[in-house]
Amino acid sequence: SQNSIDFLVEEEDDSISEDEASVSEFEEEDDIASKEEYVETKEIVALEANKENEKQDELCIGMEFSSDETAHTAYKQYGGNHGFNVRKQRRTKKQEKIVRLVYVCSKEGYRKEPKVIKSYSQPITRCGCNAHMTCYLQNSGRYKIVSFEPNHNHDLVRTPMKHLLKGNRAISVSQKQHANDADMSGISAKATVEMMSREVGGKKEGNSSFFYSMQLDEDDMITNIFWADDRSISDYNLFGDVVCFDTTYKTNEYDRPFAPFVGVNHHKQTVLFGAALLYDETTESYKWLFETFLGAMSGKQPKTILTDQCAAMANAIVKRVLEDRRYKELVADFNMMHTSPVLCATVEMLQHAEEVYTPEVFSLFQKQYIVIGDYVAKKVSKSEMVYEYKVSYRGVAREHLVNYDAANETIDCGCMKFSFAGILCRHALKVLDKKNIRRIPSTYILNRWTKEAKARSISYYHSKTPNETVKQSIGRRYSHICRIFREIAYVAADHIELTMCANEDALQLLKKMEEKKKELVKTNAWMPQSSDVELVEEEEEEEEDKEVPNARGIKRKAP
Questions:
Q1: Which of 181-195, 284-298, 451-465 has the lowest mean pLDDT?
Q2: Residue spans of beta strands (DSSP E) within 265-409
Q3: N- or C-end of the chain: fewer Cβ atoms within 10 A?
């Protein structure tokens, strides 16, 4: 029948490989979206979709749409709100009318094996997701949802990255009119974008967690300044094992040494932990700086500090790229969720590495692994469960000594690559392959290089010495508690169920605090001892002096 013929043709079209489909499905949409008349049409369709679904927050079987474009727009909006991209999979025509529509998650299906073997450079985006929406044309001329699958087999994009989804990369009708009005008023495009970003919460005017400290001389002139925001402090908690520090940059009007503390995140990108402007490079200034830095980081000390070796990094920070770098990290996180790197060989070791490592680190690991076939491992000794091998490249005399402890699954190589790079070297991987070890030993998977490196954990905000925090001033206790609950709010706001859970637990905790306060009052334990009062007052005065210094200005060096 004609229906079966149409169906077979569509199935054949749907089997196009991912690389071929990327031209017809993705690039074509981007080209169309650049046309003004298409944008205006989509605005009207979007309004219709919103009007038809204004009484219902979610899509479900039985809902109807006035046209195929309205159905497509509604599903794109649904995908944008829930954290996934949408693709048109199939349309069935009968007598020049579209009678069947199928919209799917962009991760539906799998990349097809090409007839001609070639090396893929593009990451894999499809993983066989079954989420979809199917609509049939009704006698009324409207399209009705007859099949709807809301569940996905992959992680959905979280709130901070949802604006990167293709369906969310368009401005609304009101925003476009707002931009037109600004243009007619002579406001530049850059200023208009910044203004609209502030209106929707894209930029923060203030930072309640911003930390800064200033050192004054006897004339109340500022000598040294240090600052760090909450994002910098959070990044240090995650990636502060290695810190690069340098003071060779004097690109400011005061000709002061600029001292950035920088590191590397799990995407191999530069992150800023804090920065300072110093009056001079004396021992006293450095002592104040490092004590202040550790104080801002809750006393956590780095394992390694590199100095005078990170000129490129620090110079890049000087050139005001902090926001750009953080945006690049966000994009890297987004791409990591939506794509998977291509394995050069289907082996368990690489599959395991792809599961745990970020794409950038996996690429480095894979480069080490793919060459082990060109290396030879010769066993030179054995003592109980400890094996010693000499690993060399074919035809090259140079050898690397590798020790493998089978009992503890530990391995050491003389090249020391794991010590300075954090991934196993080709020599160690050759020995593991020889010993039939098919997965990376957990000891050699550093959390800082994994996909879960930035999975928020409240343990990062636990004080190592909570008793000391309790004994401090009210202001410091308040800051300590705020820091913990701010992180709870960050996690809870990501999903409605998490929000409800946090809200319920917070109300219970508040009730518990009120009951505890009543007990303290009842037992006359509410007011602290006089000595404690004096101590608190002194601490608060000292804290006020530190946080709000009566600075007269910045001290300048004599010419």
A1: 451-465
A2: 270-277, 304-307, 375-383, 386-393, 399-405
A3: C
